[in-house]
Fold this sequence. Notes:
Largest sheet: 8 strands, mixed
Enzyme class: ligase
Domain Aminoacyl-transfer RNA synthetases class-II family profile: 1-330
GO molecular function: ATP binding; histidine-tRNA ligase activity
EC number: 6.1.1.21
Bound molecules: adenosine-5'-triphosphate, magnesium ion
Binding site for L-histidine: 83-85, 114, 128, 132, 260, 264-265
CATH class of the largest domain: Alpha Beta
Number of domains: 2
CATH architecture of the largest domain: 2-Layer Sandwich
Distance between the termini: 51 Å
Helix content: 25-40%
Structural class: alpha+beta
Strand content: 15-25%
Shape: elongated
Radius of gyration: 28 Å
Amino acid sequence: xxKTLQAIRGMNDIxxxxxxxxRYLERTLADLLDSYGYREIRLPILEFTELFARGIGEGxxxxxxxxxxxxxxxxxxxxxxxxxxxxxxxxxxxxxxxxGGQVQxxxxxxxxxxxxxxxxxxYRQFHxxxxxxxxxxxxxxxxxxxxxxxxxxxxxxxxxxxxLQLNSLGSSEARVAYRDALVAYLQERFDRLDEDSQxxxxxxxLRILDSKVPETQALLVDAPRLHDYLDAESVAHFxxxxxxxxxVGIRYEINQKLVRGLDYYSRTxxxxxxxxxxxxxxxxxGGRYDGLITQFGGKPTPGVGFAMGVERLVLLLETLDLxxxxxxxxxxxxxxxxxxxxxxxxxxLAEQLxxxxxxxxxxxxxxxxxxxxxxxxxxxxxxxxxLILGEDELANRVVGFKPLRDDSEQQNIAWDALAExxxxxxxxx
Length: 429
Ligand code: ATP
Ligand code: MG
């Protein structure tokens, strides 16, 4: 017997029970982004491998270990996007959207792919909603992005469940100086570093700062501190950002070890973190990447953005029971019809009612069936009313209007009075 086919490990089906929470999150965020004047951009899932190698950088976990890369039939190396920023930058350059200092405020949503060890909150296909802003160099826009996410948490009821971690990575020169100091310090303690961190000494030493290994963290207690190396302009930028967050009343914790996984950040870096999801606690991360666009051959163009993990946010909403119940609300009405003439009339009637009653959720029985079986299906659907249409009802142009959720009596209602009756029921709900 052939083996039952299964989904690829770490790539999940999102089942009908879960999609209301997804749509709730997606819709809330899309509306919010609209209201702040951000425009949606839709990008391909596949890009040339080189885009990510150049844009994210060799020496990062994402590029070195996590990409799904393959040769297509034309022997070109393609990669399933592991994140959205690189593709977005490619698109704005390709379409000349940032030329002449044009400001762009963009957002995107969709699946990302990383070959990671699947666990709760960490998958191989996962979804992000991301925002990228181009040609705004100041701390005001960094603040706007954080304010916007903060408003999202409040809207979703997550305000108390997440905290903001904030850092400045300085200019790239400042970071080079800091990196040298950090490497010199760690070189003397090389033997005591964990294996991953030893490897990172040559590939991406700043990443050692967020090592999860306790012994490595202990070694870092007396390490040089990033903020002692910041250039004056970055310090001023950071002060400007903090002043704006203070003005709105957003609390933050400064975390000098927050360097983020991707290499192209400069100055502002931030993460929204929750302690409710175990070790996969970062639900949103972002920062400034003023150097990235030149890496793609574009003119120097300031960029700043963030991405949030949809699975983790959905998990958080579910964990805290914050998904509004009405999102998976059952139908208002279920039409049962007996015999072909009644079925035809029911279908036409249903369409008239859909025209006449905005927001009406109505099921029309399919598959015919006895009175008993149709009634059972109506009941099981969770609908509030069954509309019954048999030979007699058809002849009299009425339906039997039967409440399914309380004991009130069934009544006959004329077809042309039905819309009004149903509309009244919806208003009450
Ligand atoms: P982490 O430290 O958790 O691996 P990261 O720094 O690799 O995160 P980013 O590249 O900044 O993550 O992606 C932004 C957000 O996307 C993360 O904060 C997280 O919410 C989500 N995310 C990243 N990788 C995964 C994954 N494999 N599965 C589910 N969500 C993810
Ligand atoms: Mg990661």
